[in-house]
Design brief:
The complex is a heterodimer of chains A (663) and B (794).
Chain A: E1 9-15, H1 22-29, E2 35-40, H2 47-53, E3 57-60, H3 67-74, E4 82-85, E5 90-91, H4 94-105, E6 111-119, E7 128-138, H5 154-160, E8 166-175, H6 183-202, H7 207-219, H8 223-236, H9 244-257, H10 261-274, H11 279-291, H12 295-306, E9 317-318, H13 324-336, H14 340-352, H15 358-371, H16 375-385, H17 391-400, H18 404-411, H19 420-432, H20 436-444, H21 453-467, H22 470-483, H23 487-498, H24 506-509, H25 512-524, H26 526-536, H27 539-555, H28 559-571, H29 577-589, H30 593-606, H31 611-635, H32 640-655, H33 659-662
Parallel strand pairs in A: 1-2, 1-4, 2-3, 6-8
Antiparallel strand pairs in A: 4-7, 5-8, 6-7, 7-9
Helix pairs in contact in A: 6-7, 7-8, 8-9, 9-10, 9-11, 10-11, 11-12, 12-13, 13-14, 14-15, 15-16, 17-18, 17-19, 18-19, 19-20, 19-21, 20-21, 21-22, 23-25, 25-26, 25-27, 27-28, 28-29, 29-30, 29-31, 30-31, 31-32
Chain B: E1 5-11, H1 18-25, E2 31-36, H2 43-49, E3 53-56, H3 63-72, E4 78-81, E5 86-88, H4 95-99, E6 107-117, E7 120-131, H5 147-154, E8 159-168, H6 178-193, H7 200-213, H8 216-229, H9 237-250, H10 254-267, H11 272-284, H12 288-301, H13 319-326, E9 339-344, H14 352-359, E10 365-370, H15 377-383, E11 387-390, H16 397-407, E12 412-417, E13 420-422, H17 427-436, E14 441-449, E15 458-468, H18 483-491, E16 496-506, H19 513-533, H20 537-549, H21 553-567, H22 573-585, H23 589-602, H24 607-620, H25 623-636, E17 646-647, H26 653-666, H27 669-680, H28 686-701, H29 706-712, H30 718-730, H31 734-751, H32 757-778, H33 783-787, H34 789-793
Parallel strand pairs in B: 1-2, 1-4, 2-3, 6-8, 9-10, 9-12, 10-11, 14-16
Antiparallel strand pairs in B: 4-7, 5-8, 6-7, 12-15, 13-16, 14-15, 15-17
The chains are: A alpha/beta (663), B alpha/beta (794).
Chain lengths: 663, 794
């Protein structure tokens, strides 16, 4: 910065209200460029000041809804031989920074493209999309940006200088701006839509704008409009367009979300005929077939993805498609079909190759639990395959996987003071194993200052209910009541039932907190809970409780338990049409199609004028036909009619209201 | 062994096939050069492991540049070049080493066998082996050629042929998504056309891609362009000729195809495929003896096959297979007479080909007489060899037919309508019959299908269609075929005989718009005809029939009744039958019964009347009488078509269904079921009997008994089960209908008979449609239900 000889690289930026990002950006890059020019298009926050403090020259300009205009303006005063441009929500790593200087020393290249790594959420483990963009080019006044949104300079360079060499630098820029949990993202998307609609009004055949508009509509959830513009982009696009692969991919994703499976598959096939080395397309085919439960074919597609050792940087790709994402998908497929060995192998590979999310680790644990009978073996396996995980995290993991004995064993291995959240986990495990005394010991170890105290006391109540420990119960109730004021009122009736005091207040049993209490009791000891309830309550009360409980299980997607409870409710006389329908739906979710259809049909017969029953019936019969068609496709893979009907049935099924709506 | 061979390959992402390619050639070559144009998979590593030298080349959409680069890296004295999706045919490689020792040749044609899937393959000849001289290089961006430069520098004489074969898998539709690839090729070629390098070879390639897509018109245009620009001795000329004719055949232009074939056969007299194509044209036109001739000619020249790219198939089947199939129909030689086939047609573009094909073998000439066509009928007929006469706006069929008689040159004349078809199986019988006949005219069996898609339900009657070509025979009615009159006048009743020949008549659907238009026109014609003679019985019968066709039963009955009254007991059986039929439709059962009694006395062997009597009795509740009638029908079976108009099923399943209904009314369920069961055993009766059977079982034994009953009684074909499933669903028993449907699906899978799948899938949609209909019935205003309505319309 401030070198004596002519500056080599100028960083040019346009900003508006980026005080949260500008410092991160500039500090990552300022040591590697010779001058920084920032064009502020109307910030009302501290952005200009922060930029100046980091050593930038700040200019002010008016925002005219045109990115190219702004960018061209921003490079007007640049004195370097090269222009590098970044957005405020981007940053570079030091390794990248060091190499940029060497790029500038090259005599023959005219421009460099960079890989743009887009984070889709603030969590580092969220999916990343990798795109490509021309970001560094020689500073010549005739090189001008074009396009109101998603401005491009490549065409201008090649026009002025047809022999220009534009080379991929092999370096990356990190972009945080697409995080969907960023509220400003929606604003930016809306702004882009506005600008693009105006551009297209002037020039309806501008295919690149159609494409960008489609992407913006897709991101804001307006799928039908996105589809319209994708079609127009495809109609006018030329085969040499650089974004053509991305067009195929994003359009196909849009069609998939619209449940137009046949069109999506056709489109992807067409894309593959031009770009047979684009792994994202195979991945998408795999996803489509997996969601249709055509597992064999899905398996083939994901295995194809794994064959790609490195992806062509000119394709916009999702990171992990050729490694851990496909491994996870394969693990899931094998899990669904009960092949534990293979499921485990692929999930382990996924974790190794970079899938570090909590979800992945939990899946690994669940699969290990299926594969190995002995808890110790599971534990050893997890230790080996999840090397980065600390002991505390590991314990949480095996708790979530339901290995309670193991939890209690390994608790002792923790060094030093055990954290309250681990103690709570231990207590819960003990309750699961009916080791009441141990459970209470763990609970007593949780200080009343920690956030887990309240929950621990409630756990104590649960424990005493199940163990009929009346003395301890009073203590826990008092403490729980201190943290949760309405606890006593809501849960005392339930507790009374369990401690043998009988029904004191029937009405309150049905309050949500009360139901929640019973729900937890079922998780710990389902047999006892149900036995006690059925003894104490009369049949209509019992049926009512079972019905409410089943809805909670449905919400948690635990269909087995929802079915059991609904069956109890129906037996005890809660024979409403909705009850039958719900029961039928739980059967369908567990793939017991004929049973499910039977009960939903009963619901229809009972209450003909509730369309929800018929919609449920249509959905269940369609699912049944889909299963038969899947078997047909499996047996006669070349018989296209069957696959065609399967896809249109799936599309029809997707249009029927889902379970949530029917509930 | 002096001269060394280098194998040169260009590759991009071929990890799946490159190993097979290289290993198949490795024993016969000394060096393997692989030019990688940007693989992102394991292709380079795999090649290296097999001992290849791998060079990188930046891909710029130019196949020739990449191949020439591979030549630069080759060290051997000879070059063999292959694609990754090819392999050396086992047993074929040994010839290479010897071949490259030669001083006489600089290059060789070898065989490239393309696997097209489903057992089809076609072999081309291509220069793949040539001396490694710097002056030989590839040209052309997409279909790169080395032959140009070899011919330019060394001349044709230094190019030999060896029997070395490569197998090319790349076009196997079972291996790759063929349609997307073809579309891509077309796009690439069309783009190349923008560069202006459009020579004969370019058009040829584009045409080939269009053929693969099935777009024959476009392909033909490109081939025509190619024929204009290609020299006769170019390497691809035979294939060009072949494919041009294929396009013409696929477009139905058989006459043009035969003409072109005569020309091409003079250019390539020993190219066997050209004779097979000739046979194909004749088969499409029904001229089987000529087709057999073409196949013989092909066999004679098959020894020279190695010169040409031979497919050796007719419509994808082996010539021997075709010969076997057409053998029974080859009657040309045994015919001892000349016969002209006269076709009357107007607007029959969908049917005319079927008609002409059915008489192709029989006819010495085909005449088509028409009052005018606004569609493709005439063009199609012309291409199939017919001579066309247009009598503008002539409504009178008599005038059309008489004109045809005048033009006919044969000893015999066969009249057939454009929407009819001669039963091929009957041709030998026809020829035999006419060879020895002494009659002057013949009746044939005219079989009318009410629904062109259902050939199991029909009506048969005698119609005089084959007449001796004598001056005194003529038609007089504008509508009806009344040639018998003039024959009988001259020769008496003995002049007309019967031949065991069937002509299929496909009626336009009952409810179609055309019926009303036809009615008006026919009524006018008939009235005009009889304006001079006065209204006699024939007039009333003919008019009655027209009213019947548009379902105006009261008017129809009036006319038939008149006809009966006028002629008294001589009234033809038809009049009685239709009079009774109309009364039945009008539900005037008592009057109908009276007529039945009288008709039975007159025509005791006319089963159809007895059947109608049964129906009337059933409707009036005279159950015993009805049962008697039905049993009599079953005893007598179908009446003779030579005497009467006969309706299908009247001697078999129709009375059975009637009996079943009788038993049902009498409460004898078992007998009822038995009769439905027997009826359901006839394939044509499935749609009638099975639903009734199903309903009966559901009402009396419960829906769960349907499937076991069908199984126990052998009525468990897919068709039976699907029909029962739909009926069960209609009765509101969803679970049982799904069970029946599943049984049908299992049966289909067990028999591996995919032809039943459309039935099964349509049953699926019908069941869903039933649920939807019920849903909408009870919830007419529900938004969700309305939103999914489009799914059920299609």
């Amino acid at each position: 910065m401030g070198a004596v000889h002519s500056p080599l690289i100028s960083l040019c930026m346009i900003v508006k209200n980026e005080e949260k990002n500008i410092v991160r950006c500039l500090s990552s890059v300022k040591d590697y460029v010779n001058e920084i020019l920032v064009l502020d298009t109307g910030s009302t926050d501290w952005t200009p000041l922060l930029a100046r403090e980091m050593g930038a020259k700040v200019y002010f300009g008016r925002w005219e809804n045109d990115f190219s205009k702004a960018r061209n303006e921003s490079k007007k005063h640049a004195r370097g031989e090269w222009i590098l441009y970044l957005d405020a929500d981007e940053e570079i790593t030091p390794e990248t920074g060091e190499k940029i200087r060497r790029l500038a020393e090259n005599k023959r290249v005219e421009g460099y493209t960079f890989s743009i790594i887009n984070y889709t959420a603030s969590d580092k483990n969220s999916p990343q999309q990798i795109g490509i963009n021309l970001r560094m080019f020689r500073n010549k006044p005739n090189y001008r940006f074009e396009g109101a949104v998603h401005e491009q300079i490549k065409s201008s360079i090649l026009r002025e200088n047809p022999a220009a060499q534009i080379v991929h630098s092999g370096l990356s820029i990190l972009h945080h701006g697409y995080c969907t949990d960023n509220p400003r993202r929606q604003q930016k998307t809306r702004r882009n839509i506005e600008i693009l609609e105006k551009v297209l009004a002037q020039n309806p055949q501008d295919h690149f704008s159609h494409y960008n508009l489609a992407v913006s509509y897709y991101v804001s959830g307006r799928l039908e409009k996105a589809k319209t513009h994708y079609l127009l982009a495809k109609k006018y696009v030329q085969r040499s367009a650089g974004y053509l692969p991305a067009l195929y991919r994003n359009f196909a994703v849009c069609l998939y979300d619209l449940a137009e499976y046949e069109n999506a598959v056709k489109l992807i096939d067409e894309g593959l005929s031009f770009f047979p080395d684009y792994p994202d397309l195979y991945y998408l085919l795999g996803q489509i077939h997996a969601s249709l439960k055509l597992y064999e074919q899905a398996e083939n597609y994901f295995k194809t993805c794994l064959k790609f050792t490195r992806t062509n940087p000119h394709y916009i790709t999702t990171k992990g498609v050729e490694s851990f994402l496909s491994h996870e998908q394969l693990a899931d497929i094998f899990y669904q079909t009960g092949k534990w060995d293979q499921a485990l192998a692929h999930q382990a590979q996924a974790v190794k190759a970079g899938a570090l999310s909590r979800c992945s680790a939990l899946r690994l644990a669940n699969m290990a639990k299926q594969r190995f009978d002995d808890g110790e073996e599971v534990y050893r396996y997890l230790l080996v395959n999840l090397p980065g995980l600390g002991l505390a995290e590991l314990i949480k993991l095996i708790f979530n996987a339901g290995l309670y004995e193991l939890v209690l064993k390994k608790i002792n291995l923790l060094p030093g003071e055990t954290k309250p959240e681990i103690l709570l986990i231990a207590a819960q495990s003990a309750v699961h194993l009916k080791r009441w005394a141990e459970a209470q010991e763990f609970i007593s170890g949780i200080p009343n200052t920690s956030p887990e105290y309240g929950r621990a006391q409630v756990l104590g109540c649960l424990c005493c209910c199940l163990s009929k420990d009346l003395d301890g119960l009073n203590g826990y109730m008092r403490e729980a009541g201190k943290k949760y004021p309405s606890f006593v009122e809501c849960c005392k009736p339930v507790i009374d039932i369990f401690t043998g005091r009988g029904i004191t207040n029937v009405k309150n049993i049905f309050c949500p907190a009360g139901i929640d209490f019973i729900y937890r009791l079922i998780h710990f000891d389902s047999q006892k809970t149900i036995a006690v309830l059925s003894n104490c309550l009369n049949s209509s009360q019992f049926a009512g409780i079972c019905y409410e409980l089943s809805k909670k299980f449905l919400a948690a997607q635990n269909y087995q338990w929802a079915e059991k409870l609904l069956a109890l409710a129906l037996k005890q006389g809660c024979r409403s049409a909705k009850g039958y329908r719900l029961y039928g739906q739980t059967c369908i979710e567990q793939e017991k199609y004929l049973e499910g259809i039977y009960f939903i049909r009963q619901g229809c017969i009972k209450q003909k004028n509730d369309a929800a029953n018929y919609l449920g019936l249509l959905k269940s019969v369609t699912s049944y036909f889909q299963r038969s068609l899947r078997k047909m496709v499996g047996k006669y893979p070349r018989y296209h009619q069957a696959k065609h009907h399967l896809l249109s049935m799936a599309a029809f099924n997707a249009k029927l209201p889902g379970r949530e709506e029917l509930l | 062994m002096k001269n060394t061979i280098s194998l040169c390959i260009i590759a991009k992402n071929e990890a799946g096939s490159i190993a097979r390619c290289i290993t198949s050639a490795l024993p016969y070559v000394d060096q393997v050069v692989v030019v990688d144009t940007g693989s992102s998979d394991q292709t380079p590593e795999i090649a290296r492991e097999l001992g290849a030298e791998v060079w990188n080349f930046a891909w710029n959409n130019d196949f020739s540049a990449a191949r020439n680069y591979s030549l630069e890296k080759a060290a051997g004295e000879w070059i063999l070049y292959m694609d990754c999706d090819e392999e050396v045919e086992p047993g074929s490689g040994g010839i290479l080493r010897a071949a490259v020792q030669t001083e006489d040749y600089d290059a060789y044609f070898i065989n490239v066998k393309n696997i097209l899937g489903q057992g089809h393959e076609v072999t081309f000849h291509s220069i793949r082996l040539f001396r490694n001289l710097p002056r030989f290089s590839f040209e052309g961006q997409i279909h790169e050629q080395i032959s140009y430069s070899i011919i330019a520098h060394s001349g044709r004489n230094r190019i030999g042929s060896i029997n070395f074969t490569l197998i090319h898998h790349g076009y196997n539709p079972e291996q790759v998504n063929i349609n997307a690839k073809i579309q891509r090729n077309i796009m690439l070629l069309e783009e190349q056309s923008k560069t202006g390098r459009e020579d004969g070879f370019f058009f040829y390639n584009l045409g080939i891609e269009y053929v693969r897509q099935g777009q024959f018109q476009l392909a033909l245009e490109k081939f025509m362009a190619s024929l204009k620009k290609s020299p006769i001795n170019c390497g691809y000329a035979p294939v060009l000729a072949n494919k041009t004719v294929v396009c013409l055949i696929e477009l139905g232009r058989y006459r043009d195809a035969l003409e072109q074939l005569r020309y091409f056969q003079s250019l390539f007299p020993r190219y066997s495929d050209l004779y097979l194509l000739e046979a194909a044209c004749h088969i499409r036109c029904g001229r089987y003896s000529l087709a057999a001739g073409g196949i013989e000619k092909a066999k004679k020249v098959s020894a020279d096959n190695f010169k040409y790219p031979v497919e050796g198939k007719i419509f994808g089947r082996a010539p021997e297979e075709i010969l076997d199939w057409i053998k029974p129909f080859q009657v040309w030689k045994s015919k001892r007479f000349q016969i002209t086939v006269c076709i009357l047609a107007r607007g029959e573009e969908k049917n005319i080909a079927r008609c002409i094909q059915s008489v192709g073998e029989l006819a010495d000439s085909v005449i088509l007489v028409t009052p005018g066509c606004s569609d493709h009928t005439l063009a199609t007929a012309y291409q199939m060899g017919a001579k066309i006469y247009r009598l503008k706006l002539e409504n009178s069929l008599a005038k059309l037919r008489n004109f045809a008689l005048q033009q006919a040159a044969g000893d015999w004349v066969l009249f057939i309508n454009g929407n009819e078809e001669l039963n091929r199986q009957d041709i030998p019988g026809l020829v035999g019959g006419l060879n020895q006949s002494r009659a002057k005219a013949h009746y044939v069996r005219l079989r009318t299908f009410y629904n062109p898609n259902n050939q199991l339900v029909y009506q048969d009657r005698a119609n005089c269609r084959i007449i001796s070509n004598e001056k005194d025979f003529f038609y007089s009615s504008s509508l009806v075929e009344d040639i018998e009159q003039s024959v009988q006048k001259k020769y008496g009743a003995a002049g007309i005989g019967c031949l065991p020949v069937t002509v299929f008549h496909y009626s336009t659907g009952f409810k179609s718009e055309f019926r009303k238009v036809d009615f008006k026109r026919n009524a006018a014609l008939i009235t005009a005809d009889f304006a001079k003679i006065g209204k006699n019985a024939l007039f009333y019968k003919t008019m009655g029939y027209e009213f019947l066709k548009v379902e105006r039963y009261k008017a129809a009955f009036g006319h038939f009744n008149r006809a009966i009254k006028i002629t008294g007991f001589d009234a033809p059986a038809d009049c009685w039958y239709y009079a009774i039929y109309c009364l039945l439709k009008l539900k005037r059962f008592d009057e109908a019964l009276v007529l039945c009694e009288r008709a039975r006395d007159l025509y005791p062997d006319y089963t159809d009347i007895i059947y109608l009597q049964g129906c009337c009795s059933l409707n009036l509740g005279y159950l015993q009488q009805a049962a008697q009638c039905y049993n009599r029908c079953i005893q007598m079976g179908e009446a003779a078509w030579e005497k009467y108009t006969v309706h299908s099923g009247v001697g078999t399943y129709l009375p059975r269904c009637g009996l079943a209904e009788v038993y049902l009314k009498q409460g004898q369920i078992t007998s009822c079921l038995n009769n439905y069961k027997i009826a359901a055993g006839y394939p044509e009766a499935v749609c009638r009997a099975v639903p009734s059977l199903t309903r009966c079982i559901i009402m009396n034994f419960g829906p769960g008994r349907v499937l076991p009953y069908l199984r126990d009684n052998g009525l468990d074909s897919c068709r039976h089960l699907c029909t029962a499933a739909v009926e069960t669903a209609k009765s509101g028993c969803l679970m049982e209908s799904l069970e029946l449907w599943q049984a049908a699906l299992d049966k289909m899978k067990k028999l591996n008979d995919l032809s039943q799948y459309p039935l099964i899938s349509s049953t699926m949609f019908q069941i869903l449609g039933g649920i939807y209909a019920e849903a909408v019935e009870h919830n007419p205003n529900n938004a969700h239900l309305q939103a999914i309505a489009p799914f059920f319309k299609g």
